[in-house]
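Consider today's protein:

***
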Amino acid sequence: MPDSLPLSRPSVPPPLDFMGGATDKSLFPFDVWRRCVNHALRAQARSPGMYRDVAGEQELRLAISRYLAFNRAVSSNWDDVIVTQGAQHALDLMARITLRPGEVAALEDPGYPPAHACFTATGARVVPVPVDGQGLIVSKLPDKARLVYVTPSHQFPLGMPMSLERRVELLEWAQKRGAVIIEDDYDCEYRFEGRPMEPLKSLDRAGLVAYVGTFSKTIFPELRVGYVVPPASLHGPLLKARRITDCHGCTLTQSALAAFMLNGDFAKHLRRMHGIYAARRAMLLDHLHGELARWFEPIVPTAGIHLAARLRAPLTEQALVGAARAASIGLYGLAPFHRRARPQPGLIFGYGSIAVEHIDAALTKLAGILPRVGR
């Protein structure tokens, strides 16, 4: 396993940093969160000292199921939800119960490196599958794939959504082969254009899709809370796998998050952040379609807190990232996310943790150095 994965934050991040996957903690309502934690502490002080439900606190599972039904059209009972220590933990548990050493797991190429590392660690044979403008190319899936990992709402890292036709094709493919699909819906709370397409989980009639989500992009990654709504046939095995790994997560955090959601504070926070991220996205696109258009071809996503942009010749990723770093601008290339597919030079611009005025300043400065880099 590598010592670090792409998009790992440098030990000393540059002042103007387009790091992907990061959120702006300065805008989180910590005063409200403190009240939720205090409420959870009082409840915990009154409870007996014993191990809790391996699937997570009931109040949080109820809050998540209500949230998914309202926001993502994913219908589930509260006891269908299993709370995990982030989405990566959910991927690890799914890999443990579905993959034997030597079996085939398929994932998008380019794709999410931690998922590749997770499946590789089980001893599975991981097969990268190319994507196009409609998402994962189902016809390129290996016939013997036992598990397929996809990010259909906001393909990571390129950003385009999987088309409805491709979603139906993937479900039909998996049903014929008895394969399991992991649908990672990691940041689609923030939608800026168009009507959201039905998640694979909502279209699934055969019990094949495990729907994975996280609070890392809506609150902050240090919270370490995610969840999975698995097929009914995998619910029991997942609980057994969870029981022998860490038994259950932090009940204090789970109880506080349940209060935060059930009181309406989570929805209020999402509405506020949606407007802020929309302004950052608009500023980024203004520059990419403006003075930077001769250098970049943005792939405009409908949702999420990052976007990708391809580089126009003669720019190269390595030269541009290095020159930007020298100018105190943190840029990140797309090449590390590719496996077999030939990488087309490009960048991933995260705007979750960089203020709109800093985006403006960084890209104005970048426009000034690009002519020298592109010689």
